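Second attempt. The first submission of R13L1/DRL21-like LRR repeat region domain-containing protein had a stray character pasted in from the spreadsheet, which I only caught after the job came back as garbage. Lesson logged: always re-copy from the clean sequence file. Corrected sequence (291 aa) follows.
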Amino acid sequence: MGKLINLKHMYVESSRRLSGLPKGVGRLRGLRILDRFVCGGGDDKETLELGDLGSFEHLQGTTLRIDGLGNVKDGREQAQKAQLEKKKYLLELILDFWSEPQEQQRISDEELLDALRPHPDLKSLKVWNYEGSTLVFGNWIMSLQHLTHLTLYEFEYCESLLPLGKLPYLEVLDIHWMGRVKKVGVEWLGIEETQTSPATATPTAIVFPKLKLLYFYGMRGWEEWEGVGDDCRVTIMPCLSSLEISNAPFLKQLPDFLQHNRPQLQLKMEDVHPSLLEDLARRGKAVSSIR
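This time the job returned cleanly.
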C-alpha cells in the first residue's frame, strides 16, 4: 500500500469491519480524498493513530469520517498532531467516538473533543457516540462561522445543550438520544436570561437566524423547554420551517417563541406527552406523525 505514493483518492467507507488503517497508508502523503479514517487501538503498532492524520496535508472533498475515537490514548496530544484546523478544504467532518468498553472513557472523550478543532470553514459536523458528561467543544464550535448542518447523536451522559443560537448560518440541527437532558433553557439560544427582558434586550438581536429544520429524537428525560416571555425583543428562529420531536414522553409544552406567528411551521410529533398534543390542538396547530 505504501508504494502507491501517487494515489489521490482512497475510499474505505464500505469496509465496515476495518479496525484500523495499515501503517503503509501513512506514506500516501498526496491523498486528496480519504472518506474514512479508523483510529487503531493504542497498543496496535501496525495501524495508524489519530495523530497520523496530520501527514495528509492535502485532504479535500465532501466528507471525512473519523472512527474509533474512543480508542485513542493520549487524546489531546493525538488530536493536536492530527491538525484538523489546517484541513480547510473539507466540507463535512464526522467524529465517531465508538469504542470497546473501557474505564474512564468519559474523561478521555471530553479531553479529545476539546482538542479536535476543525477548520473554521467547515460546513457540516456530525458527532456520534460521545460519552463525555459535558459538551466541551463549546470552546471551539463558535469559531465554525460557516457551519450549516450539525448532528449530535447518542450523547448518553450529557445533561445540557450548547449555546448554539449564535451560529450565523446553521440551517439544520439534528439532536438524537440525549436521554439525561431534562431542561432546554434560554442559554441554549445563546442569550443570557437578562437579554430576554425588554429593558436589556437588543432590538436587532436574532438567534438561530438561518435555522430551517430542527429535530429532537430520543430525549427520554426531557421535561421542559423554556420560553423567553412575551415581552422579549429578541427574534428567534425566523426561518424555521419544520420541527420534529420523537420519543420525548415527558415534554408537555413548546416554548412561547414557537407558539405565535408561525403559520408555515410544520410540526411532526411522536411519543410525546399527551398534554403537548392537546395544547397544540387548542391553538389550532396541525400536527402530523413522523412516520
